Amino acid sequence: MKTATKPHNYKPAANNLKDKIILVTGATGGYGKVMSLAYAAAGATVILLGKNVRLLENVYDEIEQAGYPTPAIYPLNLEGATEKDYYEMAENIGNEFGRLDGVLHTAALLGAPTPFEHSDSETWFQVMQVNLNGPYLLTKHCIPLLKQSDHASLVFMTDDKFGAYWDAYAISKSAINGMMLTLSAEYEGSKLYVNTINPGKSRTALHIRAFPASSENDSHPRPEQHSDLFNYLMSDELDQTGFCFKP
Q: Does 169 qualify as catalytic in the annotation?
């Protein structure tokens, strides 16, 4: 897979995402919350998607109190969501905003890394539902909205936790890479740019759950330290598709 990074010394101009409509899944999580705030600070109207209404409201309040564009909340539990739920979500967004300029998929479940032969099938299906089936269905139903934009960006978060014992999590992320490559090839030459982003080891709850005893956890970068890269991937300056972006 081709890898890339943001242009050298890229620094987003003030309000460079002004008037963009960006949907963020997992908007209360480590990267989801930070990037929702960063996109709002850059002038975007952010649609906050997550399963916990109270936490979504907290992010909403932070954005509003900072004086950024008023966001929207869309509660949806990806574990139990059906295709009808995603269809209705896209229909509601279309009725309210008429388009999407960006989608950032950050929602993810780690599951229970374990030897494959001892893996738990229920956990497998839960991880696949959130990490793969959810992004597939949401993207499928949001593509018509993204096609209404003059410059649209679809970004999937991936990871480098591959190899032994990573079970459903690693396989779901491998499949996400494949989905990105398929979509980027289908929409190459259009106004829709499709990429993945792999920020590497980060100080997030998911990473700490993966490596609870690591002495290096406190030294890893915080999501905020990668906000310029995430901004670039939603900006009109993005002109690459089919890449895995890294800091």
A: yes
> Looking up tokens 């564009």, which residue turns up?
69
Quote the CATH superfamily of domain 3-245. Answer: NAD(P)-binding Rossmann-like Domain (3.40.50.720)
**Per-residue pLDDT averaged across 159-167, rounded?**
79
Name the active-site residue from 31, 39, 60, 169: 169
- Assess contact for 131 and 157: CB atoms under 8 A: no
Tell whether the model's pLDDT for residue 221 goes beyond 70: yes
Cα pseudo-dihedral 239, 187, 41, 25, rounded to 10: -140
152 and 172 Cβ atoms separated by less than 8 Å = no
Single-letter amino acid, residue 220: H
- Give the predicted TM-score (pTM) of the model: 0.92
- The mean per-residue pLDDT over the stretch 199-223 comes to 66
Give residue limits of the domains in the chain: 3-245
d(CA 7, CA 18): 21
SS3 247: coil
Q: Are 131 and 169 in contact (CB under 8 A)?
A: yes
User: Residues near 213 by Cβ (< 8 Å), separated by ≥ 6?
Assistant: none
What are the Cα distances from residue 25, in Å, to 11, 35, 131, 203?
A: 24, 10, 11, 19
Question: Environment class of residue 63 by beta-carbon count within 10 Å: exposed (0-12), middle (13-18) or buried (19+)?
Answer: buried
